[in-house]
Amino acid sequence: MSSILRRAAGLGLAASCALAVAATPALAQEPPKPTDEQRAAALARPAVVYLETAYSGYVFDETGGLFNDGNPYQFTATCTGFVVNPDGYIATAGHCVDVGPEGARRELIAVVVTEIVAADPTIPVDEMTKFALLNYKTEGANPGTPIDRKVTVTTGAGTGNSLQGTTVTAEVVDLQSFNEGDVALLKIPTTDLQSVELAPDADVQQGTPVLSIGYPGNREAVIDPSLEPTFKDGQISSRTTTGAVPVYEVSAAVSPGMSGGPTVGMDGRVVGINSFGASEREAFNFIATAARLSDLLDRNNVTAELGPVDLIYREGLELYYEGEYSDAIAKFDEALGLSPDFRQAQEFKTNAVRARIEFGDAGIDPIWYFVGGGAALLIGGIVLVVVLFRRGRGRGPTPPAFGVPQFAQGASTGYPGSAPWGGPSAGMGGPQAPAGSGFPATPAGGYPMPTADASEGSSGITPTITKDCSRCGTPQATTARFCSSCGNTVS
Fold first, then answer.
1. Together in a domain, 213 and 174
2. What backbone phi and psi angles, to 5 degrees, belong to 28?
């Protein structure tokens, strides 16, 4: 059996060494460092939401006649927004939800002008547009009301090609039209959204690197539908104005549908709101400043701030980037406990689990995870062999209660198993109990065996009765030292 034990120990050690050797290639690797753009995207992405605004309105000519055979014109515009306060406050571009002359009204007039010019190509488009804007009237389903508008917001947008998300109707709290600053504030009925912070105007300078984020409306013509936004990198090209309203020129490739989305700095804070481009052929675009949005928030008593879940998530991100994967996983779990649908927290938790397996936590090489497993295997193997070894030796029947000896035919009395308090083993027929050990002395040659009578008891053994216990009177065998009923010493 000792050879078996040696083999098992050797096998366990070999297994742990093999695991350690298998892990050594990982020691030469280090986790890839995230880029500034990746960090900024991870901070801003949870706050980005998808917007749709459905418009419906009638158009009257200068004589009061209705276009479209008396039916309302209807169209839907897609935009982007971002959460500025966890209590359901969302920012977007003003023109994304504007029903006035610079918003939906202009769009409806443009549709009518297109129909007129299609019927008579000799009419100049520009002149017809100016005339229509001055003389045509628009209204909603009720006479004298603005064009009807329904804004829906999709939060928790899915990743990859997933279209999962929660869509709710939003209230337009306030807006500034395109010429006033092109910002708007919406409200949806919730209290646990992920949000972003706004950057002070003084922090935005020419050359500041940025990411413009949003949902391009034309990309579904070439790819599958998705609610994952796009991130366009660039920089602040200039600080300028349009109609005396401050704007930033950016080199990021912003396109229709991305309007209202955030343009963020590398710290993840919003520097502006995607607004407009010079033309599709120009490689520059413009964003409304975060300062304009701050003014709008102030006049509606709304503060741009992060919520508790955001703070926990960001702590997890920092730990993840530092290689503290176990602590990062704990933080992402904490965030998911407060917000189970927090997709980005779930994604980074998954990434952290994989990174911990591949690289180990910072300062802890992954080899130690394997060495620990090998050591556990070694110890487990040794324990198993010891158990088998002892079973192979045999240990006799289960010992009785302490102080009650067992008898064997023609053998000295002993106490099976190990003696209490680390004493010597005393198996059946084993060594005599030493004097002063607390056990009764064993006569030379052992105790005499009782006679057997097959007529009594299941064992067929009936002891010869010669005396009674002085305490309880129970009959006892001649050889008994202690009463089997009360434990009294029998003399």
1. yes
2. -85, -5
Contacts of 178 (CB under 8 A, 6+ apart): 94, 95, 98, 102, 103, 275, 276
Range of the domain at 480: 450-491
**Residue 57 near residue 139, CB atoms below 8 Å:** yes
The answer to whether residues 195 and 280 belong to one domain is: yes
Q: Is residue 430 part of a domain?
A: no
Same domain (yes/no): 75, 10: no
Distance CA 153, CA 189 (A): 11
Q: Are the beta carbons of 246 and 289 closer than 8 angstroms? A: yes
Which residues on adjacent β-strands are paired with residue 49? 81
Are the C-beta atoms of 18 and 12 separated by less than 8 Å?
Answer: no
User: What burial class does residue 234 get, using C-beta atoms within 10 Å of its C-beta: 0-12 exposed, 13-18 middle, 19+ buried?
Assistant: buried
User: Would 7 be classed as within a structural domain?
Assistant: yes
- Helix runs in 322-429, H state only: 325-338, 343-359, 367-393
User: CA angle, 40 as apex, 36 and 43 as ends, to 5°?
Assistant: 140
Least confident range of 49-58, 91-100, 295-304, 385-394? 385-394
Q: Max Cα separation, the chain?
A: 139
* Domain membership flag for residue 326: no
Q: Can you tell me whether residue 461 is helix, strand or coil? A: strand
pLDDT interval class at 440 (50, 70, 90): very low
**Whether 52 and 121 share a structural domain:** yes
Query: Are 244 and 377 part of one and the same domain?
Result: no
Same domain, 9 and 141: no
Q: Give how many domains the chain has, as a whole number.
A: 3
For 24-61, how does the pLDDT look when each residue is reduced to its tens digit (9 = 90+)? 444 447 888 999 999 999 999 999 999 999 999 999 99
Is the pTM for the entire model greater than 0.90? Answer: no
